[in-house]
Every structure is written in C-alpha cells, then in structure tokens.
Amino acid sequence: MPTRTARTAWNGSLETGEGQVELTSSKVGTYDVSFPKRAADDANGSTSPEELLGAAHSACYAMQFSAVLGEAGGTVEALDVKADVSLGQDESDGGFKLTGIHLVVRGEVSGIDADAFAKAAQTAKETCPVSKALTGVEITLDAELES
User: Fold this and answer.
1) Considering only CA atoms, which of 98, 86, 83, 90 is closest in space to residue 135?
2) What residues form DSSP beta bridges with 84?
3) Coil vs helix vs strand at 99
4) For the segment 81-93, what is each residue's pLDDT rounded down to a tens digit?
C-alpha cells in the first residue's frame, strides 16, 4: 500500500503565526491554517487539523462501512458520513487535546434490516484504520438506515 504525504509550512508564533497545509500526494490544494482561526467559531476560509482529521475519518469510515455492509449481505446505494472533531483544553498539561469525534452516518442500503445496519456501523467504527489510530479519543456513533 502507498504512503500519502501532506506538509505544512509555518511562520511565526502560535498566537500570531500562520501556515499553509499542502496535500502533497494528491496535489489537490494548499490550505491556510492559523491558531486564532482554529480556535474561532468561524474558520473564515482556513482549515484546521480537526477539519482535516474529520475529512480523513469520514472518508475512511465510509469505505470501511461499505465493506462491512457488503460482507453482511447489504447493497449500498448511498452513505452520508459526517465526522465532528472537537478540540478542547487538556487539564493534565494545560495544553489542548481532541475531546471527541462524533460520527453521523445515514445510509440507503438494500438487503439488510435496521439491526444489521446498526451492527455493521459499530463494526466499521471499530475496524476503520483511522478509528484504530485514534484510540485515545472517544468516538461516538449515530447511525440510521433510511428507506
């Protein structure tokens, strides 16, 4: 399997600095980052590690869930996966930490019932490579089969 690369060029301090995140392997773009925008309610055109992690987690989870559903006899018509990644204070060292990830998935899947969908959703959460990498963060799940 290939290794994928992203890089960040950063200038300045945490409080006043800024940088650019480059998606190097795919070459699909370069995105601005700064701590003030990371900590603000409105990102105002910048991304953050949490948003990028959410993108990675939602994409990985969708792929894994699709595989698990197929193994369970389901046929995926559509999956909509959202990952909300929260940043907060780390009381143990005065810094910051990821305080949680909430996965929300809605799916149109034929060939299985709601119980099988829920079981597959949980299995995918536990076996998704990004979920495995983030075992130090509480990951919650809201999964619903739509008809």
Assistant:
1) 98
2) 102
3) strand
4) 999 999 999 999 9
